[in-house]
Amino acid sequence: MQRWIRTRRATEGRDYPVSRRDWRKLDESDVRVRPGKGSRPRSKRRPEHSDAVSAMVTGVDRGRWTCALEATHGREVIAMRARELGRTPIVVGDQVDLVGDTSGRPDSLARIVRVHPRTSVLRRTADDDDPYERVVVANAERLLIVTALADPPPRTGFVDRCLVAAYAGGLEPVLCFTKSDLADAEELIARYAELELPIEITRFDQEPASLAGELAGRVTALVGHSGVGKSTLVNRLVPDAVLATGEVSAVGKGRHTSVAAVALPLPAGGWVIDTPGIRSFGLAHVTPDDIVSAFPEFAEAAEECPSGCGHLGEPADPDCALDELAGTGGATAGRLTSLRRLLASRAGLDEHADR
Ligand SMILES: Nc1nc2c(ncn2[C@@H]2O[C@H](COP(=O)(O)OP(=O)(O)OP(=O)(O)O)[C@@H](O)[C@H]2O)c(=O)[nH]1
Ligand SMILES: [Zn+2]
């Protein structure tokens, strides 16, 4: 497919990750179909589909993809995967091109004929020993990591693993501490201060206005352990969530909920992508350098490290170059401590590797 279709973004040769909003500005005229050259015979098996329309995948269920048409934010169309795509994985958040019956009428079925290159990927391995990784959500700009301040107590091990998955996949992490009516947030805020990321505090008896502002106009994936109040939050942010998702998501119905992610449109624009099935994050696919590259001040220094350095410092990596950089103390030293906590979390070395 890549040989035939070039998007404007691809031809600009921009660096990963690309802002999702740039992507949303594209319309059909941006998808250029390269004219066939005499030397390259056109294949009947690769139709160009110049009449295709753009959509975002909002749900997946047994070989059928629910897609929201770009042109009419909201109109949902059920689609199958065109034969020519073979077994190309298509997940929630993927930008796709559709042909066929895109009316969205009951019993209509469109065909997904193209999947655009992804700007971010939320990946997980079922377990740290499991070599098989899967993309759970594509193209989310942000990962909202939801954890309760009490009942259940914060699981910092889980939060750290989510942070690793975000940094490794090109998503900007945002922390959301719920149930602030039950406990103080100061200690937890302090633990993550050096990471310099947005932190939202919520409680169910107050409007999550600040959080809603943070999410508006963006595509945000949500992860959180059972009981942290994620469903409560989603229902607040997307008042008609149940209506919009029907039986596919059944937000927060516990263990039997489908593991698939589902994208819900926010009233102020943008999407939240709930991931009801994710209760853990295997990180077998993440390398130490994936994590370090999310910390610009350390990424360059890490190139001086011995090959295979895990950047953990003494005793595992005594020759790690990052120690020298942070040796002067101050903010850099604090950031290195945070970075190393994440590296340890990936390596399964943290005390509470609480998944
Ligand atoms: N005190 C307090 N309780 C809350 C708050 N938010 C949610 N809860 C309660 O916490 C429990 C779990 O909330 P849910 O929204 O179902 O949590 P969840 O994370 O979706 O959990 P699952 O449904 O298991 O996925 C419910 O009894 C809620 O009423 C809050 O801000 N404060
Ligand atoms: Zn190192």
TrEMBL record:
Localization terms from the record: Cytoplasm
Residue ranges, annotated region (Disordered): 29-53
Record InterPro entries: G_CP_dom (IPR030378), P-loop_NTPase (IPR027417), Ribosome_biogen_GTPase_RsgA (IPR004881), RsgA_GTPase_dom (IPR010914)
Start and end residues of each EngC GTPase domain: 138-279
A GO-annotated cellular component: cytoplasm
CP-type G domain mapped to chain residues: 119-281
Listed Basic residues bias regions: 34-47
A molecular-function term among this protein's GO annotations: rRNA binding
Pfam families the record matches: RsgA_GTPase
PANTHER family: SMALL RIBOSOMAL SUBUNIT BIOGENESIS GTPASE RSGA, SMALL RIBOSOMAL SUBUNIT BIOGENESIS GTPASE RSGA 1, MITOCHONDRIAL-RELATED
The name this protein goes by in its record: Small ribosomal subunit biogenesis GTPase RsgA
Annotated organism of origin: Tamaricihabitans halophyticus
Lineage: Bacteria, Bacillati, Actinomycetota, Actinomycetes, Pseudonocardiales
